[in-house]
Amino acid sequence: MKGVQFILGFAFLALASVLAYASDPSPLQDICVAANDLKNGVFVNGKFCKDPKKAKAKDFFYTGLDKPGNTDNRVRSNVTTVNVEQIPGLNTLGISAVRIDYAPYGQNPPHIHPRATEILTVLEGTLYVGFVTSNQLNNTLIAKVLKKGDVFVFPIGLIHFQFNIGKTNAVAIAALSSQNPGVITIANSVFGAKPPINPDFLGRAFQLDVNVVKSLQAKFWSNN
């Protein structure tokens, strides 16, 4: 019996250690500013870090998030990203942000962030937002209409979306729990893959006529 308890305890600790790495790893130093100088840098989290004694305020600074993004596109929205590419000092800190602008009836199409949970705050306008749970929870839609000052959370890895249901522009700010959360727009990835996924397979997978699949694959899919 003690042997079984030991094995179970060991398995639990192993599982806990795996879950601990389900997000960006905790830093072991105060700062690790991403650097382009590969000669003297140390490679951490996909970036070379410069000597922390040479860090400057500009390494932790970004300006321009007050400026609206261009929503003149197919989805009528624009995502302005502020991650480790814009702020080198974010390297190893496990956080980033975006500004999202929506024209009237603009949308941020169904997508996922493979490495981050997102918390979104509406600054202006009215948004219909939601996410869909996994197969384990029967693909349940959890959605709500948000107005100025409202906050909503999208769990890591789940398909989610935002839609401006108002007649005026809308603006939201979101924080994400990764320095580089990544984004996979569902329709773009499935129907805009290069080279294209076999249309017969997609027709069966989505229960669509193969000609509908080919028509979708022929469209221009652009990332927001």
Strands of the widest sheet, in order across it, are 4-5-12-7-10
Average the pLDDT over all residues and give the rounded result: 87
Percent range of helical residues? 10-25%
Strand content: 25-35%
How many individual helices? 4
Over the alpha carbons, how many angstroms does the gyration radius reach? 21 Å
The unreliable regions are 6-21
The count of strands amounts to 13
Distance between the termini: 57 Å
| Element string (H = helix, E = strand) | HEEEEEEEEEEEEEHHH
Largest sheet: 5 strands, antiparallel
Shape: globular
Structural class: alpha+beta
Protein name: Germin-like protein 1
Write the layout of secondary structure elements.
Blueprint: H1 2-20, E1 34-35, E2 42-44, E3 47-49, E4 77-82, E5 96-102, E6 107-112, E7 118-124, E8 127-132, E9 141-146, E10 151-154, E11 160-164, E12 170-176, E13 184-185, H2 186-191, H3 199-206, H4 210-217
Antiparallel strand pairs: 1-3, 2-3, 4-5, 5-12, 6-11, 6-13, 7-10, 7-12, 8-9, 8-11
Helix pairs in contact: 3-4
Keywords summarizing the entry:
single chain; alpha+beta; five-stranded antiparallel beta sheet
In short:
This protein is of the alpha+beta class and 224 residues long. Helix content is 18%, strand content 29%.
Describe this structure in words.
The chain is an alpha+beta fold and 224 residues long. 18% of the residues lie in helices and 29% in strands. It has four helices and 13 strands. The strands form three sheets. Strands 4-5-12-7-10 form a five-stranded antiparallel β-sheet, with no helix packed on it. A five-stranded antiparallel β-sheet has the order 9-8-11-6-13. Strands 1-3-2 form a three-stranded antiparallel β-sheet, with no helix packed on it. α3 packs across α4. The longest helix has 19 residues, at 2-20. It is globular and about 60 Å long. The N and C termini lie far apart (57 Å). Mean pLDDT is 87; it is low at 6-21. This is Germin-like protein 1. It comes from Melia azedarach (Chinaberry tree).
